[in-house]
Amino acid sequence: MNKVILMGRLTRDPDVRYSNSQNGDQLAIARYTLAVDRRFARRNGGDDQQTADFISCVAFGRQGEFAEKYLKQGTKIAVTGRIQTGSYTNKEGQKVYTTEVVVEEQEFAESKANADSSQGGGYIPQSAPSASSASAEGFMNIPEGVNDDLPFKG
User: Fold this and answer.
1) How far apart are CA 107 and CA 67, in angstroms?
2) Which pLDDT belongs to residue 131?
3) Are 106 and 58 in contact (CB under 8 A)?
4) Phi, psi of 109, rounded to the nearest 5 degrees
5) What DSSP designation does 134 have?
6) Each residue of 52-90: b (16+ CB within 10 Å) or e?
7) Whether pLDDT at 129 is above 50
8) What are the residues whose beta carbons fall under 8 Å from the beta carbon of 26, sequence distance 6 or more?
9) What is the pLDDT of residues 60-71, one digit of tens each?
C-alpha cells in the first residue's frame, strides 16, 4: 500500500501549468512544497528539537485547479496521496532521482480567521452566542464577520 498523509504549510504559491489531456481538454498541474514539522528528542534529556521536512507535491486536474484558486504561501493544509519516484538525466549527463507526493485529496487545516490572525494559527476560543440572539423561527442569527469562516454561503 502506498498512502501518505501530511500536514504542513506551503513554502510558496503553487506553480500551476496547463497541459493538453488525452481528450483535448486543458489539465491543470499544480506543484508546491509543504514544510512539515518534524520533532525529535535530544539524547541528553534536553528539550525536544524541531525542524521541518520540505516535501514536493503535485496535484492534477481538479485538485490542481483548487490549488491554483485557493492555496498560497503560508496556507496550512492536510494532504493525502501517494509517493511517486522517478528519474531523468540532466544537462550535465547525470542521472537525477526525484520523489514527490501525488495529491489525491487536499483540504484546509485551519480556519481563515486563524490563518489571518497573528496568533500563529492557534485555536482562538469564541464566546458562545446568547439565547437571545435566536430569531423567531428558532434559528440563531450569525454575527457579523463569522460568515467568512463558514464552508458554505446561503
Assistant:
1) 10
2) 46
3) no
4) -110, 5
5) B
6) eeebebbbbeebbbbbbeebeeebbbebebeeeeeeeee
7) no
8) 18, 19, 20
9) 999 999 999 999
